[in-house]
């Protein structure tokens, strides 16, 4: 069955970097639109980034220029490289297969000094 398992979250200082990973199983990543979404405490879930099977990427305005979404088809893994992190990036981050949709369990990112 479809499974998405995120990892790589943690506590980082403002200005720091993290790379989130999403190990996909039960389907082949290269054929699907994949996204990262996030939800901060007390707020609605919001879109962060998306990548199409052809490699076209889209980003929320709030992360454009700081975050990069990518895929490794050899390992069937989705990534989110996050640079210049800000306290407002603090949230639970979810990997999503848009067709379904299917969601992972999330990985917590906390940006604080």
Describe, in short, the structure shown.
The chain is mostly beta strands and 113 residues long.
Which percent band covers the strand fraction? Answer: over 45%
User: What is the general shape?
Assistant: globular
Along the chain, the helix and strand elements come as: EEEEEEEEEEE
Number of strands: 11
Largest sheet: 7 strands, mixed
CA-atom Rg in angstroms: 13 Å
Count of DSSP helices?
A: 0
Separation of the first and last Cα atoms = 40 Å
Low-confidence stretches: none
Helix content: under 10%
- Helix vs. strand class: mainly beta
Oligomer: single chain
Mean of pLDDT: 97
Walk me through the structure.
By secondary structure, the chain is an all-beta fold. The chain has strands at 3-7, 10-12, 18-25, 34-39, 46-51, 57-59, 67-72, 77-82, 91-97, 102-103, 107-111. Strands 2, 4, 5, 6, 9, 10 and 11 form a seven-stranded mixed sheet that branches. A four-stranded antiparallel sheet has the order 1-3-8-7, with no helix packed on it. The chain is globular and about 40 Å long. The chain starts with a strand and ends with a strand.
List the helices and strands and how they pair.
Elements: E1 3-7, E2 10-12, E3 18-25, E4 34-39, E5 46-51, E6 57-59, E7 67-72, E8 77-82, E9 91-97, E10 102-103, E11 107-111
Parallel strand pairs: 2-11
Antiparallel strand pairs: 1-3, 3-8, 4-5, 4-9, 5-6, 7-8, 9-10, 9-11
